[in-house]
Amino acid sequence: MKPVLKRTAVIFACVLLLSAALFAAVAVPIVRYAQTDETRPADCVIVLGAGTWEGEVSPVFAERLRHALDLYRSGLAPKIILTGGLDPRNTVTDAEAARRWVEAEGIPAQDVFMEEKSRYTHENFLYAGEIMAKEGWDDALVVSDPLHMKRAMLCARDFGVTAYSSPTPTSMYRSTGAKAKFLVRETGCMIVYGVWRLFGVRS
């Protein structure tokens, strides 16, 4: 092998090894944290948005909402904050679609709050935190899929929301393949968010 090609091969191998090490360093804590359930009494439940299909909540979102309703009905949290703004591909915000869903399940309108401006997880907590401050609430249970909880709780902390992890036990990400795809995407999002934090995520 020519010296130039050999050096290129070595550099490429090093880049691959470093990339794999970075992925593992981020992915392993995500997987471990997915098992964390801190469910306890709180002032409200924050449900993280998960998209809509033609104005209806996606199956993933529906399972998150189902878990939030279980928490509400069990008396663990008397109020629900629904999060999620408008994706250009959709016709209604995540929060509005979720409001229709929970009210169809018999949840009183006065117990449902919405933030409809967010597009990203950290914005969920920025705007949900504003609702909590306005209402005088101190803490929240956070509902999302298990593999999303590590980043979600980091965002909550960064935006001053006292929060406890309550992952949905009926996540739609059930097969090994579905979980693997979710983990790859979530690991990438965590790395990007980590970079944002270095430069001040609030800016």
What does it look like?
The protein has 203 residues and is of the alpha/beta class. The mean pLDDT is 88. It has 6 helices and 7 strands; from the N terminus they run αβββαβαβαβαβα. The longest helix has 31 residues, at 3-33.
Summarize the entry for a quick read.
52% of the residues lie in helices and 12% in strands. It has helices spanning 3-33, 59-73, 94-104, 121-135, 149-158, 176-198; strands spanning 44-47, 52-53, 56-57, 80-83, 112-115, 139-143, 162-165.
What's the SSE blueprint?
Layout: H1 3-33, E1 44-47, E2 52-53, E3 56-57, H2 59-73, E4 80-83, H3 94-104, E5 112-115, H4 121-135, E6 139-143, H5 149-158, E7 162-165, H6 176-198
Parallel strand pairs: 1-4, 1-6, 4-5, 6-7
Antiparallel strand pairs: 2-3
Helix pairs in contact: 1-6, 4-5
Molecular shape: elongated
Terminal Cα separation, in Å? 50 Å
Percent of residues in beta strands?
Answer: 5-15%
Compressed to H and E, one letter per element, the order equals HEEEHEHEHEHEH
